[in-house]
Design goal:
The chain has 403 residues and is an alpha+beta fold. It has 7 helices and 27 strands. A hairpin with a 2-residue loop joins strand 19 and strand 20.
């Protein structure tokens, strides 16, 4: 039995990076770009107006009256020189025509016959966006390894890009094992259990940015288990749930070995989720999670999610950790670190944490009622007011509610 840290290290070392693929720009959202992007031209490409107003030469101005000699919409060329003492009406984004060095907004002028009068003082260069002020041609705009957010998508579009070279999404095959399992929507036989592990783990794969490949349920026979594992060996990652402990019908480890796989560890000093196995089969990682639903989801969070993110090019792969104050007593009477499910709240910039009740490894409600995990050392006894580190599973609680 190895520590959580050692198991994480082994898992991360055996998740090779995926290749790049070119995808339509919008499909790149949330994914990691694998190329350095340099600006193909100055942005903006020419001096242009930041306001709807009037462009003129302040340096050549005499008095406060300007004759309006033209109109320049956004997208216009603006190649004609504007004479001293004259102005052109200009729209936001239109290029600054020759002879002009200033723009005055429409609300700061008064129409007067065939021209305008300035209502206040102006500064040379006011309301003009200069060529290349955002980025110069050849400058690095987006570093390789950047997660593409809407703003990066917009910048790529401003360069005329319609696609991006990003790390491929990990295809994760998911297999549940057990004669007792049936799929949601099917009749539940006497003694049967609805398979919640596959949709739970598949959702975790999706949330991490991967693509779940559902293999269904393997009956508790060596032949069926081997056949299903072989079916999933073509994916980037194979995840199984159940059949990995020491029961008479736990065939997962034996099936992996029979197919030529190599078990790198089995059993981790943690609760829930002790019977976790990790293997490499045909050069691809295989992680065998426990069958109990909460244990399977916690195991995914601790081992598979960070490794998947690294595989897909991410450099930030671990969930955020915050310091919170416990609101109740927590004791670990066992000999393994206990990953206790908690609910974190925030008030006045401080975090508080309370357990989600019964911490049984089969209880999904211990996760649905919470949003974080705390690690309680063997033999530790925590009391209200103790500060603990919380691994946040989501930060939705920090968003503001509708008044």
């Amino acid at each position: 039995m190895i520590s959580i840290e050692e198991a994480q290290r082994i898992v991360l070392e055996n998740f090779p990076p995926l290749p790049l693929e070119e995808v339509p720009l919008l499909d790149g959202l949330g994914r990691v770009i694998g190329e350095e992007v340099r600006a193909p031209r100055d942005i903006p490409p020419a001096d242009n107006s930041a306001m709807d107003g009037y462009a003129f030469s302040l340096a050549a101005l005499r008095g406060d009256f300007l004759k309006v000699s033209g109109f320049l919409p956004a997208g216009g060329e603006g190649t004609a020189t504007v004479a001293a003492g004259e102005a052109v009406k200009i729209m936001t984004g239109a290029p600054i025509p020759p002879g002009c060095d200033t723009v005055v907004p429409v609300e700061e002028v008064q129409e007067a016959g065939n021209g305008i009068r300035l209502l206040g003082k102006c500064k040379v260069g006011a309301h003009i966006r200069s060529r290349g002020e955002e980025i110069r041609e050849g400058e690095r705009a987006i570093a390789a390894g950047t997660v593409l957010r809407p703003q990066e998508i917009g910048l790529l579009a401003s360069f005329g890009r319609s696609s991006a070279n990003v790390y491929r999404r990990a295809r994760v095959a998911i297999l549940a094992t057990g004669d007792e399992l049936c799929d949601a929507g099917s009749p539940i036989p006497h003694g049967g259990i609805v398979n919640s592990n596959t949709p739970s783990v598949a959702s975790q794969v999706l949330e991490a940015g991967g693509v779940p490949v559902l293999l269904g349920i393997a009956p508790d026979t060596p032949e069926a288990t081997r056949a299903k594992i072989a079916e999933g060996a073509g994916a980037d990652v194979l995840v199984t749930t159940g059949g990995v402990s020491v029961g008479d019908r736990d065939y997962v480890k034996d099936a992996i070995v029979a197919l030529g796989g190599r078990i790198l560890f089995w059993k981790v000093a943690m609760k829930p989720g002790k019977p976790v196995a990790f293997a490499v089969l045909d050069g691809r990682p295989v992680i065998a999670l426990p069958g109990n639903p909460a244990a399977a989801m916690v195991g995914f969070e601790i081992f598979l999610r960070p490794a998947m993110l690294r595989m897909m090019g991410h450099s930030r792969i671990f969930r955020p950790v915050v310091r919170a104050v416990l609101s109740e007593s927590v004791r670990n009477r066992g000999d393994r670190p206990h990953l206790v499910r908690v609910r974190v709240t925030s008030e006045n910039g401080a975090y508080a944490a309370a357990t989600t009740g019964d911490q049984g490894s089969a209880r999904l409600s211990s996760l649905t009622n919470g949003n974080g995990l705390i690690r309680v050392a063997p033999g530790a006894a925590l009391v209200p007011g103790d500060a603990v580190d919380v691994l946040l599973l989501d930060r939705g609680f920090e968003m503001r509610q509708v008044p």
